[in-house]
């Protein structure tokens, strides 16, 4: 199972919610580097990391992630 992030949508939602990458990383319990790499499409998040991001942004998984 591979989780693919719609990185442009993640960035857009993060900005609309008023989060910097650092603030999102703190809220999600991830490193700033992890959030940055996921948002830039450099890495695919683990299921656990994807859930943490969704919970922090208060969005559904399907809004920014797909499963391949």
Report on the structure:
The chain has a two-stranded antiparallel sheet. The chain has 68 residues and is mainly α. The protein starts with a strand and ends with a strand. It has four helices and two strands.
Q: What's the N-to-C terminus distance?
A: 6 Å
pLDDT under 50 segments (min length 5)? none
Kindly report the spatial arrangement of strands forming the biggest sheet. 1-2
Counting helices, strands and paired strands, the structural category is mainly alpha
**What is the rounded Rg?**
10 Å
Secondary structure elements and pairings:
Blueprint: E1 3-5, H1 7-16, H2 21-28, H3 32-39, H4 47-57, E2 65-67
Helix pairs in contact: 2-3, 2-4
Question: What's a concise summary of this model?
Answer:
The protein is mainly alpha-helical and 68 residues long. It contains four helices and two strands, in the order βααααβ. The protein has helices spanning 7-16, 21-28, 32-39, 47-57; strands at residues 3-5, 65-67.
